[in-house]
Amino acid sequence: MKRLGTRVNLIPVVAKADTLTQNDLFVFKQRIREVIAAQGIRIYTPPIEADEESAEHARMLIDALPFSIIGSTEDVKTDDGRLVKGREYLWGVAEGMLYSRHIA
Question: How far apart (Å, rounded) are the C-alpha atoms in residues 16 and 35?
Fold first, then answer.
């Protein structure tokens, strides 16, 4: 990752974030940040723009790294009747986002 980070933009993510408690996710993300800093791994950092709104958005993204993601290809029904991609648990539905790129 150290060498790769000098050639491409690395964006650290925690996959299947819905399988961790909020506290465990916080601790895990903190550990990842510490390892990235200790190893000198270069990761993508959004540029801080001149206008305050864009700068605040960039700071929010930086603070959220590594990103927590939930992905699924399964259709599940939410309590309010929507059909979404996600995972169904006893406590409810963890809604994910599905992005796909269509190549012509």
Answer: 20
Percent of the chain scoring above 70 in pLDDT: 92
Residue 20 CB partners (closer than 8 Å, separation 6+): 14, 28
CB 72 within 8 A of CB 86: yes
Q: How far separated are the first and last CA of the chain, in Å rounded?
A: 32
pLDDT of res. 104: 33
Q: Map out the domains of the chain as residue ranges.
A: 4-69, 72-104
d(CA 39, CA 8): 17
pLDDT (tens digit per residue) in 49-72? 888 988 898 999 899 899 988 878
**Phi, psi values for residue 58, rounded to 5°:** -65, -40
* SS3 label, residue 95: strand
pTM over 0.90: no
Residues 6+ away with beta carbon under 8 Å from 65: 11, 12, 33, 43
